[in-house]
Amino acid sequence: MFKLLFSSAFLTLSLLFASLSIVSAQSQVTDWVPEASQWKKLNDEKVIILKNEMGKGGKDDDHAATVAVVVDFPMQAVWDVIADKKGAEDYVKNLQKVTVIEETDEYALIEQTIKIGALKKVTYVIKNVDEAPHSMTFSRHSGDLKAIDGYWKLFPIDGGNKTLVVYKLGLKPGFAVPNFMVKNSLKNSLPEALREVRQEVTRRQAKTATAGRSSNRRGLEIQPCQPEGGFVFSRI
Predict the structure, then answer these.
(1) Global pTM value
(2) What is the CATH number of the domain that holds 61?
(3) At what angle do helices 75-82 and 179-218 cross, to 10 degrees?
(4) Which of 32, 60, 75, 117 has the largest CB neighbor count within 10 A?
(5) pLDDT tens column, 4-54
(6) 40 and 23 within one domain
(7) Spatial distance between the Cα atoms of 208 and 108, rounded to a whole number of angstroms
């Protein structure tokens, strides 16, 4: 009897914590994307530009941009793509080379060479900190740029079947470039990067589904049915 009561209480608490987590995630999502017009664009598979956190004097940061997109797959599928640091150079157009210099349980040092819009090609090293499977932050460690920082944030939506992806990138080139050029380059490059991530998630999920179907087909063999003849399928 005690075991039954304990199991029931544990199940009730588990469901309560799960419900609170969903409510918390939904609250965070509306904080990031509060307007119905924004959600309409997201549901139409568009990338939207969000407001940046205010900088000094309450002004928008001229050296940063924040964008969002909805990916039609669960959060773990999106995380697996974003966390694949080396693999990014295969599908992100402006990312020309990636080298993982050091990787520990707490952080990774990653050298990247990129071309952002009208800006010249630059090479730098970032310190990357993962909080799987919902958050990744990065900041400058060394290299050509005077400053670079940002984050990826993932939020489950539609009952966990889809994911809201928020991506911020801020940078200061360290060479003479007008602020408006930096801002415009980011606003053009970041939406494209999110579209590339979404396409890569879709590609990998399709590949996984195809592999699963092929495995199922290989798991069937045709054997003669005794004694009538004909064929039956049996699992290997």
Answers:
(1) 0.78
(2) 3.30.530.20
(3) 120
(4) 75
(5) 444 454 444 444 434 444 445 566 898 999 999 999 999 999 999 998 764
(6) no
(7) 27
